[in-house]
Design a protein that fits this description.
The protein has 2 domains: 61 residues, Multidrug-efflux Transporter Regulator, Chain: A, Domain 2 (Orthogonal Bundle), CATH 1.10.1660; 229 residues, D-Maltodextrin-Binding Protein, domain 2 (3-Layer(aba) Sandwich), CATH 3.40.190. The protein is built from 13 helices and 13 strands. The protein is an alpha/beta fold and 298 residues long. It is elongated. Helix content is 39%, strand content 25%.
Length: 298
């Protein structure tokens, strides 16, 4: 007999759901060891823990014990499809979408139930996993795919002007985003690929804090060009030159994933209305929505 219990074995012993075991372990209410990202429960310590108050009584109290509440908020990178789905699903989840890096920090601080990330990483089609593992490896979170998005240069159409790369943006007033935005990390990656530096761009001092605001600034003439997503370029009838396909993921607190508000959102995102909206906005691929890319402390 193993001297350790798995999460599933302990849940069966206590007659509770596995997510309750994760919650109690996160609170420090159970004797637990973390080995290569997995939770293992020392059998002898668990038996002593149960014997202290009686197994049946303790299990009942475990099941009814409240867990620390996180605000019913999704933070992180801005995404028009996500913003729309939160409203349309009537999930009751609020949005505070002020940048992928901001969202990652809010997730680590317990200030949201989920955060949208599009953080580029070394390697082909590598997004978000290393950043999540580094910042949240000791937290009960799961990283699921929201959508792939076409990102590139958006600009107003002008006769005789052709823009296909960042090099073509030299001399144009370039609209940037806030430092916490994932698009700024993507911009750095793309500049490196073209052997360029930020000094090669004529960055304007003001920043725009969402994909929609970025496109609006260019459409209004406050800037000539910026790095945004195709959906926002289409919304403001801007020209668009795709430079990269990024993966936008949601890192979700595991308990919140199973709670009614997030499950309501997930059910809505399986609907035809959601897929129709993604097609209408343009530049999205939601064919792998919900795919798991990282599962901490599983």
């Amino acid at each position: 007999m193993s001297q350790f219990l798995t999460t599933r074995e302990l849940a069966a012993l206590l007659r509770v759901k596995e997510r309750k075991v994760y919650d109690l372990a996160a609170e420090g209410a159970l004797p637990v060891r973390r080995v290569t990202g997995k939770l293992l429960f020392p059998r002898e310590e668990i038996e002593n823990w149960l014997a202290a108050n009686g197994a049946g009584e303790k299990a009942a109290r475990v099941e009814s014990r409240p867990t620390a509440a996180r605000p019913l908020v999704i933070a992180g990178g801005h995404d028009p499809l996500l913003e729309w789905a939160l409203r349309e699903s009537r999930s009751g989840i609020a949005a505070f979408l002020d940048g992928a890096l901001d969202g990652l920090e809010r997730a680590a601080a317990g200030d949201c139930i989920a955060a949208g990330l599009h953080i580029p990483e070394p390697g082909p089609d590598a997004w978000n996993v290393a950043a999540t593992a580094e910042r949240l490896s000791d937290e009960p979170v799961v990283l699921i795919e929201w959508a792939k998005r076409r990102r590139g240069l958006m600009f107003r159409k002008e006769p005789g002007r052709t823009i296909e790369s960042l090099a073509d943006a030299r001399g144009l007033a370039f609209q940037s985003r806030q430092p916490e935005a994932g698009s700024e990390l993507v911009l750095s990656l793309l500049l490196e690929r073209e052997n360029m530096k930020r000094d090669d761009l004529r960055l304007i001092p003001a920043v725009e804090r969402s994909e929609t605001d970025l496109a609006a600034a260019i459409a209004a003439g406050r800037a000539d060009i910026g790095l945004g997503i195709e959906a926002s370029a289409r919304q403001f009838q801007l020209e668009f030159a795709c430079l990269i396909v990024e993966r936008f993921d949601l890192v979700v607190w595991r308990k919140a994933y199973f709670d009614p508000p997030f499950q309501k959102l997930m059910r809505f995102c399986a609907s035809e209305a959601f897929h129709d909206r993604a097609r209408t906005l343009g530049g999205y691929d939601v064919s792998r929505f919900g795919a798991v890319h990282f599962n901490a402390r599983s």
